[in-house]
Design goal:
The protein contains 15 helices and twelve strands. The chain is an alpha/beta fold. The strands form two sheets. A seven-stranded mixed beta sheet has the order 1-7-6-5-4-2-3, with helices on both faces. A five-stranded mixed beta sheet has the order 8-9-12-11-10, with helices on one face. α5 links the parallel β2 and β3. The radius of gyration is 22 Å and the shape is globular.
Length: 432
């Protein structure tokens, strides 16, 4: 939310990122000042479509800035219309910039896929080449492999946790990639990519020409900091841990210092015209939820560690994929995890032993505490079957290559008792 405009080019005090404080403190204090809202401790809800100008000249000036007309002075436009900007959206964006280490700019969207698709449309030229993590979230896969063709995009999947494979892809590309799109841990295979190492490989070949984007949804701002590893852009499905209660849909893209202002500026321009605007009510709820993000994610990670450990001991579970279970025997994956992550998160993928879809379905139908539903990061535990649900839009060959088999199960651990969750899962496993 912006107070009256002035000639001062420095950002107002309430936009301070408060880097000297812990991120959980920044989530509460940053981005909002009660003095602009009748001293209300919490931000009001600005449920309005349009905003009144103080004068005709102010209205003219705001539109000059919003549409980059000849008299644009380079400042952020004031409040005009909620498709362009809204106080609640700005408050949440400012808070996200404050809590995401290394971030400087942000643009919020009504879904994670809206953030991803609008960003790619805004920043990539027709005919762009994109190297992306294999596997990746099903919606991202579908956009890159199918919708991207309409814009001449050439998308190439590679296991980005394998640095030699990435190096080979970079060296054998006929033209430099316009973007390297990383998802780490990957969904649903939980492979961990060394962001810093990828950045070094890309920069050594293409300099700053190639944008490096990271989907950080699984570990969030709590357990992983892509900007500190050299990323240009960070995506979140805010529906997940940032919202954290399975009661809203939203997304956000953040950019760092330097060219981040130009990147987010272009993204916001596309957002304005394409109309991918986050509702004020949703932004208000996200602002509320962000204050408990650290509390929730840290507690969920503790519970997930107990659940994952228990699953490794069940005779009907073949393999458990969970960052917290990595050891030195896992080689580069363990080294990357220890270097790059401050916690394991609460996503678990596991394989049932000697199981096809029929056995997996019998197990999933038997769970009682875990909800059989897609999505993740809520207070409740969610369990699903990636091959026939979240990643069903992948080709059979791609599913097989990524080992997304009928025996694979994905589990998002919530805030229930870990003992109750283990008992529920074990009872369901006994039904196979």
């Amino acid at each position: 939310m912006s107070p009256s405009d002035s000639n001062d080019q420095s950002p107002p005090a309430y936009k301070s990122r408060l880097r000297e404080l812990h991120p959980s403190t920044r989530a509460i204090l940053a981005g909002y000042a009660s003095k602009f809202s009748e001293r209300s401790v919490k931000p009001p809800l600005f449920r309005t479509s349009t905003f009144e100008f103080s004068s005709a000249e102010e209205g003219r000036q705001f539109f000059q800035r919003a549409y980059h007309l000849p008299d644009d002075d380079g400042k952020d436009p004031g409040l005009i219309y909620s498709r362009l900007n809204n106080p609640n959206v700005e408050i949440w964006e400012d808070k996200m910039v404050a809590i995401e280490n290394g971030a400087a700019f942000a643009a919020a969207f009504p879904s994670g896929m809206s953030a991803i698709s609008t960003t790619l449309l805004a920043l990539l030229p027709v005919g762009a080449r994109i190297l992306y993590t294999d596997p990746v979230y099903g919606g991202t896969y579908f956009f890159l492999e199918h919708f991207g063709e309409r814009f001449g995009y050439s998308a190439h999947a590679v296991d980005t946790s394998d640095l030699s494979a990435v190096e080979s892809a970079l060296d054998n590309s006929p033209q430099p990639y316009d973007m390297v799109y990383l998802e780490t841990p990957s969904n649903p295979s939980m492979t961990i990519t060394d962001i810093q190492a990828i950045v070094q490989l890309v920069r050594a070949r293409n300099g700053a020409k190639t944008l490096i984007a990271v989907d950080n949804t699984f570990l969030g701002p709590v357990f992983q900091h892509p900007f500190l590893q050299g990323a240009d852009l960070v995506f979140y499905s805010a529906t997940k841990f940032l919202g954290g209660h399975s009661d809203l849909i939203a997304g956000i893209v953040l950019a760092g210092e330097g060219r981040g202002k130009d990147l987010i500026g272009a993204i916001r321009d596309f957002r304005t015209i394409l109309g991918g605007t986050l509702a004020a009510d949703t932004a208000w709820m996200l602002t509320r939820s962000l204050e408990t993000c650290w509390l929730r994610m840290e507690r969920q990670a503790e519970k997930a560690t107990k659940v994952a450990t228990a699953l490794t001991q069940h005779p009907k579970v073949e393999r458990v994929l969970f960052p917290g279970l990595l050891t030195e025997n896992d080689g580069p994956s363990y080294a990357t995890y220890k270097k790059q992550c401050t916690g394991p998160g609460s996503m678990i993928t596991f394989y049932l032993k000697d199981a096809g879809f029929e056995e997996a379905a019998r197990f999933l139908d038997a769970v009682k505490i875990c909800h059989l539903a897609v999505s993740l990061g809520g207070t409740e535990s969610l369990i699903e079957h990636p091959r026939t649900m979240t990643h069903s839009d992948m080709s059979e060959d791609d599913l097989d290559r990524c080992k997304i088999t009928n025996s694979m199960i994905r589990l998002s651990v919530g805030l229930e008792s870990s003992k109750d969750l283990v008992r529920d899962l074990f009872d369901a496993l006994d039904q196979i």
